[in-house]
Protein 1
Amino acid sequence: MVRLAAILFGAAFTGAVSVALGKLLLRAARVKLYREEEYALAFVSGGACLSLLVFLLAAARLAYPVAFLALGGAILAVGLARAGDRGAAEPLPPLPRAWKLAAGAVAAAFLFFYIPNALAPEVSPDGSAYHLGLVARYLREHGFVPVRDNMYAQLSQGIEMLYLFAFAFGAHPAAAATHLLHLLALPWMMLCYARRFGFPKAGACAAILVFASPVVGVDGTSAYIDIAVACAVFAVFYLLQIWRHTGRPDAMRSHALTGMMAGFCYAAKYTAFVALPYAAALLLLSRARRPKRALAVLCLSAAVMAVPWMAKNWIFVRNPFAPMLNTVFLNPYIYAGFDAEYARYLSLYELPGRAAIPKAVTTTGLGGVAGVTGPLFLLAPLGLLALIWPAGRQLWLATLLFGCVYPLNIGTRFLIPILPFVSLAMALVFARVKWLAAAAAAAHAILSFPPMVTLYAHPNAWRILEAPWRAALRFEPEAPYIRRRLAQYGAVRMIDKHVPPGERVFAFNQMPEAYTGHEIVTRYQSAFGNLLGSILWTPVFEDMHPTSQIWFRWEQRPLRRVRIFQTASHPTDYWSIAELHLYRGTAELPRAAQWRIRAWPNPWDAQLAFDHSPATRWSTQQPLYPGMYIEVDFGRDEIVSAARIDASHDQYGIRLALDGRYPNGHWQALSDAQQFVNAPPLPMLRKAATQELKLRGIRYLLIGDGDHEAADYRELAADWGIAEVDSDGAYRLYRIE
Amino acid sequence: VDAAKPAPRGAQLRHTEESVARFGFLLFPLLLAGCYGGPNWYDLPAQRPAPAGASDQLAMYVAMNDPNAQKHLLRDINRTLEDSLYRWTHRRPEMQFWLDGTRRIKFAMDFAFAEATMKVTGPVTLTFFINGRLFDRARYDQPGSHHYEKDVPPELLKPRAPNVVAIEADKVWVSPDKTSLGFVLTEAGFKY
C-alpha cells in the first residue's frame, strides 16, 4: 500500500503542480475561460511550464526528489495564494442529460481497464525501454549526461520531464499515471471546446470516439507520450480558436501562451513541430492585429520551450535535431545514412503498400503499426462533409497540418494527435442525423471495449489485454507480473545479477533499460551500436567477410600520398574497406608511425581501414555518390607500386580509382583498373570480432534466441572466445573471455 | 575630410577597423568556409596482432594461387600453378586444413573438368574422404566450372588440428606420357 501511495502521490503531485502553474500562466495571459475548460487548459499549459523547469533542474544536475518537492511545493504555495485572484469563472453551456449519462457510463467502463493498467508496473515496450529507461538514468545521474549511444536520448523529451518529476516519487507507474491524467484531460478539452462553440452532442460523441479508441487506451495508460502530445496540440488549436472568436486588445499575451504551447509541442515530440507553422498560419489567415509583432511574440515564446532541446543536442551530439538531419549536421554519434534507412522503414514498416495502411491502423494492427484506432475510423472520410461548416473547416485545417507529418511514421499512435480533430469532424456530421451520433458512439465503445478488440485485431496488436487490479493494488508482486508481461525482463534481471556495476552490455535489440542500472548498447540505436553489430555480423555473414581483394597496380614511383576515390552512385550500397595495404614491388610497405589517414564521408571511422583487424571496416555509412574517398599520407616520400583493398562482398555498385600525390605536391591518376581476387576465408574471425568489442569496453553480450544466427554464438562459443554466463530461456548472456 | 586628398594612413586603418567591426560578422562564415581543408587527419591506430594461421600456418581454406597454398597440398596435386590460378589434380588428391572448431563447418571446393579430358572419361564420380572416413560422393557429367559445398558432421573433424581431405576420382584421363589427370582445382577447404 505504501508503494501504491507513492505512485498516486507522484502522479497527483505532478498534476496538481501543473494545474497550479497553469492557472498562474492563464491568469498572466488573460485568456477568458469557462470554469470547466480552465482546469484542463491549466493542466496542459502548466505541464509545459513544469517540463521546462524540470529541464533546467536536470541541466543543472539538480534532479533530486527533494529539489522537485521544493519546486512543486513553492508552485503550489504561490498558486494557492493567488487562487482567488481570477474570480469564479462562468460555467459552459450544459451537456444534454442523456449524453452526460452516456459519456459517464463509457468513462466508467473504460476506466475499469485504464486505471489498473496505469497503476500496474510498467510493461510497455518503449515505456520500459527508453521513455523511462532514460528518465531512470537522469534520476540516477541527477540530471542530463551525454547519452551518445542511444538515439532516443536525443529526441525532445518534454513529456519525459514530467515523468521524471513523477518518477522521483512513485517510480515507473507514477509516470504512466501522469499520462493517464492526460488521457482524462484530452476528451475533457474536446468536450469543453464543443460546448463552447455550440455543438455539445458532437463533442460528447467525439470525446467517446477518442477516449475509447484502443490505441489511445493502451498508449494513455503506459509511459508513452502520445496522448500528452495530443493534449498539447489540441491546446494550441483550442487557444487559437478562443482567440479567433474573442479577439482582445491584449491578445499578445494570448499569442505568447499559444506560442509557448506550440514550442512545447516540439519539446514533446519532433513530429508535433507543425504546431508553430500552424499557429503562425492561423494568425495570419485570421488577420491578427499587428501581425509582425504577433508572429514575433508567437515565435519567441515557442523558442523558449523548443530551443533548450536543440541546445542540449548541439552540446552533446553536435546536431540540434538529432537523431534526424545527420546528413546536414554530420556527427560521429549517428551515421549519416541512418536518416534515409530509418525513414524508409518508418514510412511503411512491414506493410506491403500504402493501400494497406487504413485497414492496418484501424482494425488489424498488422505490419508493425502496433495499435488500432478502432474500425469506426474507417468512416473518417464522412467527416469531410463537415467542411461545409466553419468549425469543420478549422478542424480539417488542423487535421491537414498536423497530419502532414504522418507519412513519415505510419505507426498507429502517430495518428493520435489528429484523432481529436478527425473525431470532432466526424461527430459534427453524425450529430446532424437523429440518433446517428449516439449509435456511432455506442458502436465504437462496444467495438473498442478491450475484450472485444481481440475479435478483430491481430493477436500481436498492441492493446489492453486485461484489467490487472491485483497488480495495480500490489496484491500481485511486481516482479512476477513484469516477468509475465514483458518478455525481456528476465534478460535484464540476468544482467543485474551477473554483470559488474558500470559494465556495459551489447544487445542486438531493445531491452527494458528502465529495469536495469546497466547501460545497454543496442545495435541500431547509435553509430557505436551499429559498429559493434557490424563487427559481430562480419564473421557470420559470408557477404561481409573481407575476402574480396581489389588490387591497383602501377609503375613504382615516389609518392607522398595515395587517395582512393569512389566514382559511382547507388541508392542503397555503401562502400567499405576492411584493410588498405600498400606495396613496393611484391612486399607490403610497412606501416609507419608518421602515416596519417583521412576519409570522407564518415571520417571518424577512417582508422578502421588501417588497424590490421579483419573484423572492422571503415564504411561510408551513406549510399554511394561520386567523390567519396580514403587517403593516406606517408609523412615522407615512399616508393609505392600497388595498393590492395581487403573488402567485403556486399558492395556491388562501387567504382574505384586511385590517385597519387608526388613529392612536389602534384596529384596524378595512377590507376583505375582493378584486379579482383577472392581471398580464402579467414581463420579466427569470430575471436577477432569479440576482441574488438572488448577493446571498446564491451565484455558482455546479450543474445536473444531470435537474433540473427543466435545458434552460431551458442554452438561456436569457443571460436568466438565467449562463455555463456546465464540463460533465461529466450536470452543468453555471454562474457567475452 | 577633403575628398581629393588621400586620408592619412591612420584614418584608413581606423576606417577599415570600423568596417570590420560593423560588417565582420558577414565575413565570418566566408572565412570559415575558406578555411575548410577537408576532414581531420587521424594517426595510424594501434595494429592488431595477425590472427593465428594467417601467414605461416595452415589455413582452413586456401586458394591454389595463395603463396601459402603449398603446405596444404599432401599428394596428387600438381606443384605447378597454371595461369596463376589453378593446379591439376591426379587420381586421389589430398590436402590438409586447420580447424579451430568442428561445429557448423562446411567443406567447399571450386574446381573444373576440362572438356578434352571429359570427352575421354565420360561422367566422373568424386568420392570425398575426411580424415580417412567416407564423407560424400558426387557425380559430374558436364565439363566446365563446378562448385561443391556440403555441411560436414562434427564427428568427422578434429578441433585445433590439421584435417586431411582426400578426393578420389573414379576415372582419370591418362596422357601419352602416363600422367593421369583428374580435375582442375582453384580453391578448397573448410568454411563456416
Protein 2
Amino acid sequence: MRREMFERRYRVRAQIPSVPMGNIAFLLLIFFMATTILRSDPGIEVRLPQAETTEKHEKDQVLHVWIDQNGCAWINNRFVATNRLHDSVVRETAVKPGLVVAFNADVRAPYRAVADVLEKLKQANATCVSFTSEPREHPARP
Amino acid sequence: VLATAPDASYGVMVHVLDQIKLANCRRISLRTLE
C-alpha cells in the first residue's frame, strides 16, 4: 500500500503543451506581417500625346512598343536594348504576320530616340505603325 | 512629307501629324532630318 501511494504521486502524464505552441504561432505571424515587403510593379510611366484623330485596333494584332521619357524602349512591358530591338520585332512579326505596331512614346521623349526606334521597326519590315495618343481634352464650355 | 529635326519634341511632331490627318491627308511620309 505504501508503494502504490509513492507511484501515484510521481506519475508523469505525457502530453504536448498546446499553450506555448499558440504563442509561438502568433509571434511568427506578427513577425512575418511586420517584415514582409509587398513589391508592386511600378510599370512604365508614359505620358501619351493628345490628338483629335484616333482609331482603335484589335488587341490580338497589336504589338505594343513603349518609349519612356528617357528614350528607353520596351516591347510588351519588357525592356529591350536598342541594338536588340530589330531581333525582337522580327521574332514577333514572324509569329503574327500583319501585326500592327502600336507606338506608345512619351510626349517628353527626345525625338532622336523615337526616330531610332522607328528606323529599327522599318528595318524589321514592321510597316504598319500606329502612333498611340489620348483623345484631346476640350475645355468645358459655359 | 513630315520632316522632323532630331532635336524636336515628339509631342510637337504628333500634334503636326494630327493636324495633317485632320486635313484629310492619308499618305504621310515621315522623315528625320540629318
Protein 3
Amino acid sequence: MIIAVSILLVTALLAAMIALRYLSPAFRERMELPKYRFQASLGTKENKNVER
Amino acid sequence: MSEATEIPIEERLVAAHGYASLAGVFVSVLFGLAVSLKFNFPEFLSQDSWLTWGRLRFDHTQGILYGWLGNLFLAFLYYAVPYLTRRPVTSVRLGWIVFVLWNFVAVLGGWTLVLTGVNQPLEWAEFPLIVAAVIELAWVLLICQFVVPFFKCGASEIYVAGWYLLGAITFTGLAYPVGNIVPNLLPGAMGAAFSGLWIHDAVGLFVTPFGVAIAYFVIPAVTRRPIYSHFYSMVGFWLLFLVYPLNGTHHYLYSSLPMGAQHAAEVASIYQGIDVILVVANLLLSIPLGRAARAFSDVPLRFVWTSIVLYLIVSLQGSVQAVMSFNRYVHFSDWVIGHSHLAMIGFASFAGMGGLAHIWQRLSGVRFHPLLLAYSYWLLVAGLALMVVDLTAAGLVQASLWQAHLPWLESVRASRPYWLFRAMDGLLMVIGFATFAGSLLMGPIRHPNRAKVLAYPEDALPAGNNWINTAYATTFGAGLLFFVVSFVALGIIPATLLRAEIIRTTPAGVSLKLTPSESRGRAIYAKNGCGYCHSQQVRNLATDIRRFGPPSSAWETANDIPQLWGTRRIGPDLAREGARRTPDWQLVHLYNPRYIVPDSIMPSYSWLFGGDPESPSEQASDVVAFLLSLGRSAEPKLKDTPVAISIGSVTGEGREIFVANCSGCHGLNGDGESPGGRALRPPALNLTAFEMTDAIVTAALWHGVRGSSMPAWGELKGDELTIGQLNAVASYAASLESADALPETGMLASKEILHEAGYRVYETHCTRCHGETGESDGPDAMKRYPLPARFTEVRPSYAVAAKVIHEGVRGTAMEAWPLLTPGEIQAVTLYLRSFYKGPERHMVAPPRATMEMHP
C-alpha cells in the first residue's frame, strides 16, 4: 500500500510538473537555463578531437 | 558583463584517482578471470585457502565496485564539480586523505582481509565491517568535499549532472549502512529484506547516477551543444531517485518475504524501466543525427554513447527480469550474471571510461595514446557482447534444465561449454582493459593549457527565482523522504511482519540453535563464499519444491546472522541438505568433489584436511556438521515409494549412467577402486565381488542403503534418475557381479566337513547379527547401523569374505576376527553362501580379491 501510494504521488508530482511546463512558457524557459549556464562554463574548452 | 575569474581543477587528484582506477580494474578483472577459470578447472589455485573460489569472487566484485568504478567516479568528481558549481572543491588536503582511505585502507585492505578469510557473505558488501566503516567515513568526507560547493549555488541553477552527483553521494552515503551493517544485526529473512535493498541500491544509487552524470557532462562538452531538454533530464532524475530505492526486494521473489513487498518491488521495477526510456531518449536526442558521425570520431564520446544504449537495454532487461512470471525461470541462473556484467561493464564501466578518457585528454602532464583507446573500445565491445550472449544463453539452458525432471548435474554438464567460452572471453576482456590502461599510460606527455573553469560573476547570468529554488530544494527533500519510505516499506515493515510470522509459525519444540561445531562450520562456509553457488532458500515454486523439498519458511532462518539465502545456484540449493547425505560422503566430497561426483565443478577444499579425506581437520568436521544441520528443523520426510524398476538386458546407456553417476564411488569398473569410494564409511561396495538378487539391487538403487552413502536415486530430490535410466543402470550394475565357486583343489576339507564346521563358527560368532538363516534378523541386528548383510540376498566371493572376516569393515558393526583360522574362514564362508536364494548365474569374470565387503 505504501509503495502504491508512493508511486501514485510520484506520478502526480511529475504530471503536475509536465503540465506546468506546457502551461507556463516562463517556467519552461527557466527550467532550461542550467544547461546554458553549464555550456557557458565549458565554453572556452577546446576539443581538437571533433571535426568542425 | 564583468570579467570572468578562473577556478583551477585539482589535476593531481584527478590523475591519482585515474591511475588508481586502472590498477583497480586490472587486479579486479584478474580476480574475475581466475574465478571463471575455476569453473572449468576446479583444481586451479585450489591448494590454498586464500585463493579459494569464494574469496576471489568476493574480491572481484568489490574491486570492480570500489577499486575500479569508485576511483573512476572520484576522478570525474574532481574534474566536474568545479564546472558544475563554478567553485573549487572544499579541500585539496581532504582529497588526499580520501584518496588514501579509499585506496590503501578500503580497497587494498579489503582485498587482503577477504583473502585471509575476514569478510562477510553479503552480496555487494563482502568487505568486512571494519572496511565498511572506513568506506562510510569516506562517504561522509566526500559529502564535505563535493556537496558543500553546491550549497553556494541556487538550487535552480544546478545543471542535471550536478543533481545526479549530489544524489549519488548523498543517497549512497545513506544506503551504504543498509546493506553492509543492518544484515549483521537482523537474522534470516529480516536481514535478507535489507540485503535486497542494498544489492539494488549499489547499482541504482551509486553506479547509475554517476554513469548518467558522466553522459550529461561529456555529451554537451564534445558536441558543443546543450542537451535536448533540461526539464526532461530533471524529470528522469527525480524518477530515478524516487523509484529506484523501491526495487530492492525483486532479488528475493517467491521467497518467504511478505508477498506485498515482492509485488511492490515488481511494480517499481517496471516503473523504473519507463524512467530509463525517458533518460536515454533525452540523452540520445542531445546528439543530433547530423552531427553523430562527426561526434563519434571522439572515442570517449563513443564510449559514453555505447554506455547509454546499453543502459537502456540492461534496464529494460532488468524490468522484465523482475516480473515474477519471468523471474521464476531465469533467477539463480547465468542469465542474471550476464545481466550484471552488462550493467557493470556495458553501462557503468563504459560511461566511466568515456568520462576518464574525456578528462585525460584535457589534463596536463599525463600520457595519452588515442589509437590504443580506439582499439580498447572495440576489444571491450566485442568481449562484452560475446560474454553477455554466452551467459544469457547459458542461463536459458540452465533454466530449461531446471524446469525438467533431470538431475542437477545435467545443468552443470550442459553449462560447461558456455563456461569455457566465458573464461576465454574473459581473457579478451583483460586484454581490452589492459589496452585501455595503455592508452592512458603510453603515448606522448600532453601539455594542454592547465584545466580550469571560467567562473562567471553572478550578474552575468539570470538569477534563479526564489520559488523555483524552493521547489527544487523541496523535491530533493522529498527524494530523501522517499528513500526513507523505501527503507520502511521494503525493510522495516517486512521485518516487523516477519517477526510476527516467525513467532506464529515456528513449530513447538523446535530448536534452531546450532552446536558450537555447527556454528564454526557455518562461519567457514560463509567466509569461503559457499553461499554464492548454493542458495539456501527453496522458493515457493513447484519446480523448487519437487527438486529440493518443502519451501523455506521464515522461521527456519530466524537465527541466521548474516543470512545465507544466496542469489545464485551453480550447485543445488542446500536448505534441505542435512537429510540427504552421510557425514563421510560430505567429508570426501569436501576434500575432492570429483572423488564422488566425477562431473562436479565444485572446488576442492583439501586444505581443510591433513592430506587425505580420512584426515579431516577440526574445520572440515565443523563444515560437515553445519551441512548436516541444514533443514534439520524442517524434518523433511523421505518418500517411501514402492520400487518401480526392474533388471533387464545390459545397454550402453546403462554404462554411461553408471560412469556419470556411480563410478565416483564404485570405481569405473565397479570394483570399488576409487579414492572417494575407499574413503567412505562403510567403503563403497565392490560390485564385482558379490552375487545379488534383482530385488536387492533395485531396492538399493531406489531407496538407497541406510547407514551408508548410497543415495536413494529413485527418491533423491533434484538428482533422481528417470525410471528408464534406473532400469538401465540397475541392469548394468547387476551384470558386474561375478559368480564364485570353491575349486576342489582349494578345499581344506571335504564339503560336508566344511559345512559342519562353518555352521559351528557361524552359530558362535555370526547369528546374533546375521540371524540363524542369514536373514539379518538376529537379536542384535536392529541395534546395528547399517544393518548387517542379508546373506539370502547377497553372496560374497570366497576372497572378499576372507578379507572382510579377517579385517572387518570400517564404518559398520562388522568386526575383525583375526583369530579365526583359514580353515574356519573357508568353512564359515561356504556355510553362509548356502543361504543365498538368488538365481545361480554363470561366471562372467574370474573372482577377484579386492575390496572390503559392504555388509
Protein 4
Amino acid sequence: MTTTFDAIRAIIARDFELPPERLQRDTPLDAIELDSLAITELVFAIEDEFKITAESTIPTFKTLGDIADYVARLVAERDRKPRVATTSAEAAPAATTRSRPGKNAANGADDAGAGRKKSPRVAKHRPARAGKSHDAPPRKPKRPSGGRAGARAR
Amino acid sequence: VKRVAVTGLGVVAPGGNDADEFFASLVAGRSSIGVLHEAWTARLATRIAARAAFDGSAHFRAQQLRMLDRVSQLALVAAKQAITTAGIDWTDEMRARTGVFLGTGMGGSATTDEGYATLYRDGSDRIKPFTVLTAMNNAAAAWIGLEHGLTGPNLTYSTACSSSAIAVGEAWERVRAGTAQIALAGGAEAPLTLGTLKAWEALKTLATEDPDDASASCKPFARDRSGLVLGEGAAVVVLEEWQHARRRKAEIFGEIVGYGLTTDTAHITRPSVEGQARALELALASARAAPREVGYINAHGTGTAANDAVETGAIKRVFGARAKKLPVSSTKSMHGHLLGAAGAVELVVTLLALRTGTLPPTLNLRVPDPECDLDYVPNAARERQDVELALTSSFAFGGTNAVLACKKV
C-alpha cells in the first residue's frame, strides 16, 4: 500500500535523479535544491499522476510533506466534486473537468482512486509509465546528487 | 579603438563536431546533406537537409534536457568548445567584462512545434511547463551565460539568415570600443522540424532533390541550382581584446578587422546588388583595407536563383575587373544553410581558410551560369593560398546585410 507521499517521492526520485532515501516528509526543498521552476515541473508531473489540477498559483512549500499534504487535499476535493456533475461536464468547476491526458488510474496512489473520470486522450508528450507500481524500487539515479534545474554542459 | 583577436572556436555542424573536423570535411569536399528519415518527413515535398551528428543526451542529463531545446544544446556545446580552445581561466572580474552575443532565426522551434502539436493535434491542454523558457529566442544565449557565469551583456540577435554575422559584428564593436573585454559570439539554429520545414517548403525556396545524388542537391552559383537546403548547428567564437589575449599568452586563431552592415528596403526577400555591395564596402572601410587586399570571400551563396546572381553582381561592383580573379566559395553546398547560425559557422570557415591557406570549394558546380561568372573554387579545395584578408557575407530575409572582414595572424 503506497501513500500520496510515496508516490510523490517516486516522481521526484525519477525526474530529479535523487536517491529516494534522501526524500523524507520533513526534507526541506532547499536541501534537495528544488527551486521554484523545479516545483512547477514537479507539480505538472503530479497533476498527470494524480489526475488533479493545481491551483493557478501554487502555494509556497517548505518541505516534501507540504507538497504531499497539498496533493492529498486536491485529490480529496477532486473525489468529492465529480458527483455533482453527473450529466454535464460544464456543470462542474473547470478545475475538475478539464480534460487531461495520461495513463489510467491503476497506478495511482491508494488515496487517488475513486470517482475518477477516465480521460479519452493519452498524453503523447510524456513517457508512459503505466503498470509501474510505487512499491517497485525507483529507477536508479544516474548521479548521486545534483538536482539543480540549471543546465550544465559536460 | 582596440584590436580584436579570435582566441576560441566552437562548432557543432553538419560535417563536424569541432572546428577542425568541420573544416577538414569541407576541404575534403564532403557534403553532409542527405535525406531525412524520420517518419514525419513523409509529409515533406523534399526530404533533404543537413543534420549535425549531435545527440544531446551525450552532453546533458535528462533533467537538463527537459529545459533545453536542441538549439540551446547545440549552442551550449559550441560555446563550451570555444571557451576550452581559448583556454580561459575565469576570474570574477573577467566574467563581469564578458558578454554573450548570439544569433538565431527560429529559436526553440522544436519546442514551439511540440507545444502546438500537443495543443492542436492532440487536443490536449497539457502544454509542458517549460515551453516558454525552452522556446524563447534568447534561451540559448541565456544558458551560455548561466553555464559560465558571464555577467556582462547577454544579447540575442534575430535577423534571419544574418543573425549570427550580426551577433559577431556587434560583439566585435563592443570589444573594439573596450566596453567588453571578451565576447562569446556566434549563433545556433535547429530548424529541422516538421513545422519549420513545411513553412520553408511553402516559400518555394528549398532545393529539389538531386535525382542522382541527394547530397548534391545544393548547387550554389550553378545554372542548375534549385534553392537552398536547410541545416542545423551552432558556432561560437571567443573574441578578445588583443592585449588581453597577448598578456595571457592565448593562441590567436585570427583577427576580425571589419564589419559592414546595411539594410535593403526594396523587398522583404529579394536581395539587391546595391545593399550587398555597400555592406562589402563598409566592411572594407571599417577594416581600413582596399579591395585589392582581399584574397578570399566566403559567400552567402545559398543556391537560390536570386541570391547567387545578385551576390555575384555585388562582388563585381565592389571589386571591378579584379572580381573574376578573386576566389569566392559557398560552403553551404556541403553544410546547408544554417540560417541564424550560418554567419558564425562561415566565419569559422573563413578564419580557418586564412589560417591554413586552404580555400574550401563550392561543391556541385558543374553547369556554369552566365550570370555567375566568378572564380567559385569549383568542386575541389585550393591549397597553399597565401591570403591575408578575407570577407564572409550573410544576407538575410528582411534585408539585413552583414559582412565580416578577417585577417590572418
